[in-house]
Amino acid sequence: MSNILSITDLRKSYAGGFEALKGVSLDIREGEILALLGPNGAGKTTLISTVCGITTPTSGTVTVGGHDIQSDYRAARQMIGLVPQEINLEPFETVWNTVRFTRGLFGKPRNDTLLEQILRKLSLWDKRKNATKELSGGMKRRVLIAKALAHEPRVLFLDEPTAGVDVELRKDMWEIVAELKKDGVTIILTTHYIEEAEAIADRVGVINSGQILLVEDKDTLMAQMGKKQLEVELTEAIAEIPAALSQHDLTLIRDGHALLYTYDTRADRTGITALLNDVAQAGLVLNDVQTRQSSLEDIFVDLVSGERA
Amino acid sequence: MNWTAIASIYRFEMARFFRTLAQSFISPVISTSLYFVVFGAAIGSRIQEVEGVSYGAFIVPGLIMLSVITQSISNASFGIYFPKFIGTVYELLSAPVNFLEIVCGYVGAAATKALFIGVVILATSMLFVDVSIQHPFAMLAFLVLTCLSFALLGFIIGIWAGSFEQLQLVPLLIVTPLIFLGGSFYSISMLPPIWQTVTLFNPVVYLISGFRWSFFGIADVPIGLSLLAILGFTMLCLGVIWLIFRTGWRIRS
């Protein structure tokens, strides 16, 4: 897959000396969904704003479809759609006119059929004659998406599309994103909901303090860094881990009612057989056994706290 | 040039005007009528004629300028301030448009609205007094240029303003006094000599004088100077706006 967006050593410093982006380099492949994870203030929005032309970079280059965002800004910007984090809409104008305005602003000729398709896909068609201030928060967010899609962008930025959105609407949003991907749109979304990245992204990037810490295929990331835990529930509580089990990496949990064993799925031997044998040898009786995989969230927390340490 | 973008901005801005068409129409009609009642009846009974023109007719160009200038400024400053205030300015900044296209859209719409109001006031005036227009083309040119140049000034104010109060500040503190003291309702020849000289530093004098010349063929300053003044003012505003967009002042971080 070729890269549709290339960011090379992008830096942004503000007048006060604050460096929001410290040399970000990132390639985004055509047709993928990249989730950019990071805590508040990590530089996610600054990165997006710079690529979209809202913020001027201090140094570095960004090309979209081969077009430089500064020297060839018209061609570059025409390929980009942006759904901002804040709900910003002209309150008194109708949905239809607002969306039509954006298409025109991007220099595209009028195309009512296309706008109708977009509005229908986003369940906004019935609301097209309503002023945007009459819409609910979720509907307004959809209008922002419709606006971003009105000029048929190849790359869509969604800046925290589900921040402060209820669960149902979040699921809707994920479906919309999946649909867009089917249409061949490359999507970059920022979020601090790990489950969001886990649910819809192809690749995950982690950004913190203006630096990209990692970009990896989501599945690889989870497999590589995923630790698994085995919880061995005992029929009778024990006060301490028997000496016979000291060679295993065990923790006593739930007031001595269970043993927690952490192992690496990539290792040649997980050590489960040996552990269970030793447990039986030690005379402990098992009540239940369960395993759980660490989530992207654990990985993320590890990475970000590792960065801080 | 991205003409489609200019047309889109223009149409979007004009839609705001049409949403409030009735009040856009009624308020200039009422205020003009009031001016005629107050100035025409009260002062007009004492001043019969100014340089051969009846006082009622004499104030018509000044009245039109007063409204056109204030409207141009407020329309344009509000037009660009509002997107900044509600946050939709992100769209302008991320669109494939340059500063000239943004200015053409916003300033064009603001000037159109002001022009419309100017015409409404002229029509209202004709109900009260007998107005003749000696140089209709010059009159139109002056009107259009005034609308455009003050809409440019309004655009600058809108970008500069950080609050609605600031938006009102420049028109209220600077522009309105300049218009009132710029010979809207009197000929500067009626002033004592020292004030005549001081008045010549007021740029609005040149505008009103030129505009009045297009109606009655009488002027306080030479018509060429008036034309030069308004062209110079337009260029100055354009230059400032170009600088604003180049540096991203108050709009792009």
What would your notes on this structure say?
The complex is a heterodimer of chains A (309) and B (253). With 309 residues, chain A is of the alpha/beta class. Chain A has helices at residues 44-52, 73-78, 95-105, 112-121, 137-149, 167-182, 194-200, 218-225, 272-281, 296-308; strands at residues 3-13, 19-29, 33-37, 59-64, 67-68, 80-83, 155-159, 186-191, 203-208, 211-217, 227-234, 250-253, 258-264, 286-293. In chain A, helix 3 (95-105) packs parallel to helix 5 (137-149). The model of chain A has no long low-confidence stretch (mean pLDDT 89). Chain B is an all-alpha fold. Chain B has one domain (3-247). Chain B has helices at residues 3-19, 21-43, 55-58, 60-86, 89-94, 99-128, 136-160, 164-180, 193-199, 203-216, 223-247, and strands spanning 49-50, 53-54. Chain B has a two-stranded antiparallel ribbon. Chain B is globular, with a radius of gyration of 19 Å. The model of chain B has no long low-confidence stretch (mean pLDDT 89).
List keywords for this structure.
heterodimer; A: 309 residues; six-stranded mixed sheet; B: 253 residues; mainly alpha; two-stranded antiparallel sheet; 2 strands
Instruction: Give the oligomeric state of the chains in this entry, treating copies of one chain as homo and distinct chains as hetero.
Output: heterodimer
**What string, H for helix and E for strand, traces the elements of chain B in order?**
HHEEHHHHHHHHH
Order of helical and strand elements of chain A: EEEHEEHEHHHEHEHEEHEEEHEH
**Beginning-to-end CA distance, first to last residue of chain A:** 36 Å
Mean pLDDT of chain B: 89
CATH architecture level-2 label of the largest domain in chain A: 3-Layer(aba) Sandwich
Q: DSSP strand (E) fraction of chain B? A: under 5%
Overall structural class of chain B, as computed from helix and strand content, comes to: mainly alpha
Main sheet of chain B, how many strands, which sense, barrel?
2 strands, antiparallel
Rough outline of chain A: elongated
Q: Which stretches of chain A of 5+ consecutive residues score pLDDT under 50? A: none
Q: Helix coverage percent of residues of chain A?
A: 25-40%
